[in-house]
Amino acid sequence: GPGLFDDPEGVAAAGNRYFIADSDNNRIVRYVVVMN
C-alpha cells in the first residue's frame, strides 16, 4: 500500500534527514526528524 516499502536497500543520514532507497518501488524516501 501507499507509504510502505517493498524492498528497502539502504539508508543514508545527513543531520536530521534520513533517505531510504526502496528498490522495487523505484524511489528514494526522505524523512525529516524534528526534535524539540
How would you portray this structure in words?
The relative contact order is 0.32. The chain has one domain. Strands 1-2-3 form a 3-stranded antiparallel β-sheet, with no helix packed on it. The chain has no helices and 3 strands. A hairpin with a 4-residue loop joins strand 2 and strand 3. The protein is 0% helix and 53% strand. The chain is mainly beta and 36 residues long.
List the helices and strands and how they pair.
Blueprint: E1 8-14, E2 17-22, E3 27-32
Antiparallel strand pairs: 1-2, 2-3
Largest sheet: 3 strands, antiparallel
Number of domains: 1
The global form is elongated
Q: Mean pLDDT across all residues, rounded?
A: 93
Helix content: under 10%
How many DSSP E strands? Answer: 3
Taking all Cα atoms into account, the compactness measure Rg is 11 Å
Unreliable spans? none
What percentage of amino acids are in beta strands?
Answer: over 45%
Distance between the termini: 31 Å
Strand order of the largest sheet: 1-2-3
The succession of helices and strands, N to C, reads: EEE
Helix/strand class: mainly beta
Q: Oligomerization state of this entry? A: single chain
Figure out the total of helices.
0
Keywords:
36 residues; mainly beta; three-stranded antiparallel beta sheet; 3 strands; 0% helix; elongated
Question: Could you give a short description of this structure?
Answer:
The protein is mostly beta strands and 36 residues long.
